[in-house]
User: Fold these one by one.
Assistant:
Number 1:
Amino acid sequence: MTVYLIIAFLLLAAVFLIYGFKTAPWRLRVKNYKLDPDKTLGSFAGRRIVFFSDIHLGPNFTADQLNELCRLILRQDPQLILFGGDMLEEKTDLSSESFKADIIKELRVLSDFCPCFAVHGNHDVETLINRRYTTEVLEASGFTLLQNSLADIGDLALYGFESATHDQPLYIDKDNLNEDSFRLLLCHEPDYAGKNKPVLGNSLYLSGHSHGGQVTFFGLPLILPHLGRRYVRGLHQLHNKSQLLISNGVGTVHIHARFCARPDILVLDFP
């Protein structure tokens, strides 16, 4: 009986490993959110935003996979596309000009479709080489990089923070916005937004970074990154009118597996 139990355990472990490394990382899903009516601003009413994050391009997420991701994003018919950071990982080949050109080509499809904005993630700025590479790729791809800066998109106020891991996030509000004015904020690390709450008024933070735990024990995260441990996934109420929404991200890092933390992109519909 003991032998059979050991064999059954080994078979079950093999199934989990195969699923975690070969199947789960590619079970990308689209998660839809309809914003509250008080987050509707004039001309942006009835429009759609797609938010994606943490692609970690490299041996485990190639230009071909990026092509599939971009096609999925475009199928959502967005009017605005937002990237939450972490384009790179440790094994990204920064010396390959052909790989860089392929990335730019794929991302350019998105910016040709509608306006695209991005922030840096911690992996994007952990070295000067990474910072330069990511900035060059995003700019060549037609993305507007927000670094503690604000963009006016019609009457939608969009703000992007620098990485809280390696840089210094700062918030400078616009003079003509009051507490009831809606602000959409990109902040790669969710714990920074949740702890500091730079905007306490009518606001929605979009974050990635935590990967939803990436590898979990049936939903219980086993390892979480710095500034991604308190707020891990889903929607959180930070203040009376301030919310934080976290994407599980698309790619993987360090351990290139997922378990009970499906990759996703977020679709936000304004009523």
Number 2:
Amino acid sequence: MKRLKSTLCHSAILLSLMLSMTWISIPPFSCAQAVPYARTFPKSKVEVEKALKELQAYSGQKLPVIEGFVATGDQPLDRYERAYFQYSIDMLSTSPQATTVRVTAKITAWHVDPSPWKSGYEVLPSNGRLELDLLDRLGEKFGEKPVTSVLKSEVQAPTPKLNLSTGLPGGSPQPGKSSAMLGSSAAAPSAEGMEEVAALRAKREAEEKRMLQLTSELQSWRDVQHNQAHPLNLVVVKKTGTPVLARPAEDAHVLFAAAENDEFEFIEAEGPWIHVEISGASRGYIRRSGLELPEYIATRLKSPNGTASDEKQEPFRIEREETAAFPGDWDPLRGKSVKIYTVQPASQDPKETGAAAKLNFAFSIFQKFSTESVTVTPPVEGVVIIFDSADGGIIGTTLLNVQQFAGGSLPRDNFWKQCYVDPPEAFRPNSKP
């Protein structure tokens, strides 16, 4: 099993690296190549560069929306978010007092793919709006219209060996030549550039083939892991934040909060609580309502009518425990902090949940409370049981009465007479047998 997990982890990491390499090598859009836009301004290169810095043209910026700035691609634009753009600027000195500014905009955005592992940042093709906007703002900063406009097809991106400080390869252009002639001299792509593109394309195809192979292998390992025999005694947490407690009580110390789908080994059931093994000798308690029980354990704990089969059936079950102010106007507990148990009938038979059954169940809770009251935080001065049913009621008593009753100094009949009951008839057994 450990070897399988190790192999699966290794495959996942290798697949992630291959995906990253593929994204860096070639943009996923075939039309995402940077297309330059250019204009010539009657300013020196130094003046143009200063103006561009004042316009903050060299710093990347967030793009609020991508509609209207990106050319149509293969993917719907509503699948992209967190868009940014960055200008790439080249300056060619056509004369001491004339500079051609060539601009390309690189737009990146996070692509949300239906398959999460395919999501990632992608380069999107600009439709020229960002480039033309920067050139327009640069012209406005100089206070005059550009003397020459150059279409995007007339100026080609520089080859890797181009030295922009001295102009095009082969020497500086003569001052009288137009920017159109400048563009025509660099229109033909170099053989070296074509070879580089071909090499990148071949590399990408090889990486895509390898990526598909790894994806298939990873899915196969996942299928094997999923189909392996699953332990029968594991309970599964339903919701993130489910508390794992040190004792089977609502006010017990919280060991930690479990996450959704966390699995723990079942030890035993204690009423509404499931005793689980956390790690090694560590143990904890989780409410049964917060767990998914496998069929093996559910069958073991439940009889066909849904009650525990291996222990005596209780007529009521505790649904909630809390510490709050006394909910009535009984003088001994008015306004005081009490422990409140909310219980519901576990049987639909009225004979099994009548007044006598309520008193017997309350008696068991009072006995339990007498042993736990010293550890209750914050301290309480009484205990209340709310029977949450159509014929239910409320019964409560003070901590002193519980302690006297547990110690034997207060007989059971006298104890009931000193309890708070509402309504009294809900806890008055019928006189008939």
Number 3:
Amino acid sequence: MSYIIARLREPSTYAGLAALLAAFGVSIAPEKMTAVVSLVTALAGVVAVFLPDRNA
């Protein structure tokens, strides 16, 4: 589980997931894009609240 959490903290993971979704033909209608962006932003905010900061 810690491996998965560590990967989810890396920006390249999100780029890779987006590339996989695009490769499998997943697309979002333009009129739904605002709702999707708002949802992803809200989820990122929740994750930011509950995950601790990395130690320097």
Number 4:
Amino acid sequence: MLKTGKEYLESIHDGRVIYVGGERIDDITRHVGFCRGLRTYAALFDMKADPALRDIMSYEEDGERYSMYYLQPRSQEDLRRRSAAHRKITEFGMGIMGRTPDAVGGNITGLTMNLDYFRNKPGSHPENVLNIYEHMRKNDIFATYAIVPPQGARDRNYYQSKGLQQPALRVTKETDAGVILNGMKMLATGAVYAHEVLIGNIMPLAPDHTKEAITCMIPLGLPGLQLWARPPFNRDDISEFDAPLTYRFDESDCMLIFKDVFVPWEKVIVHDNADLSRNIYINTPAHIIANHQCNVRFATKLRFLLSVASLITRMTGARDIPAVRDTLGRLAAMEAGYAAMVDGQIEAYETTASGYAVFNRRYVYAAIHWAMENHSGIIDTLRELMGGGHFQFPANASVFDDPELAEVFDTYWTTSEFTAKDRMKLFKLAWDLVGSDLASRATSYEKFFVGPAFAVRNYNFINTPWDEIHNITESFMAQYDIEQNAPVTN
């Protein structure tokens, strides 16, 4: 059943404990740092439930309708349908929001597409994977994930020698009914707004770290679970005109603190198996299904960046300068090339032994790497195209509240083609994209959300068919040898 925005808002009042520094947030609907983001997610649910978007945003199975990101693709057309839904969702957020409901929804869907990988392995619960998936799609669940240990937490000997509590999340007790969790997990983007969170391990675990090898899907309001949020970028003094992206799309990030949190066995996917806890993502379509969504999001963001860059140069009157046209042409080529990389994941799709269709694995990882390597440079290019334009405008939109100031502003900032207000509006938007707190966070996010650069390059390395690549050269060299090519003599 598809939730409306109203139903979404009603469904997240679950007693979750949220801290911003020492401030406990009892009601995110009334807190300026979160209420605007909450309205954005509610609007996203309304968009998804819009009857006019029915065929793009949802699919029917056994007489029920579910969000498209829970579709288990069995054909190239199914992949196109999933990708189209991702694109519609990312366009809603201009590619700024990384943790929309389709991200982890795709991850869980991917896990169900190779349940054979789980079977007969110690500590695995394949029946729970399927039950969790059914629960999520039937209840239109928005889930996020926290699948990385806190930095420095792997040095277990240090904490033991100091008599300190080990910070990495682990199972501290097992009962007939479930497990008790203690410790910390990062970095749950969107947790303030989500219904549930996938706890797991995307980084390798040492074989003896079995108690840290816990993978489960849990509600965010469980007793003993705390969400420690970074400072919200939304503030009382921010208006939508001055910071439209921050105002709408600050999705928050949280460290999750577990203090004797009870998780029933039916919510556990992996337990006490270090290798399996990580490999479930790589050895099922989960990682690929989820990261195609990331690629679609970045393609949308790149198109948005190109749009802003072109409008900025038009407004400054520099668009037809040869060097500026050259820069815009380069950005346009990058945008088109990346869009082709995303489309190629569908055109060169793969099939699994279970009969499912999956986006091309190599192309997904190549696109992730391209985005990670190029985002900062593109942002710098847009900043250069802006020059000092942003700083030439009034501090904020309050200038319009004073008729005398508004008249002065209109007189001196209006050009022959553009009003003062329109110019300020575009430059405020552009600054929110390249120079605000939200923009700075996005720079780090685009670099690290899949993992460190060496990990992304390793994904590309291990998924390259090296024997096939080597055969290109070896087959060519096999066509000739030294005795076959004696010198030509007259």
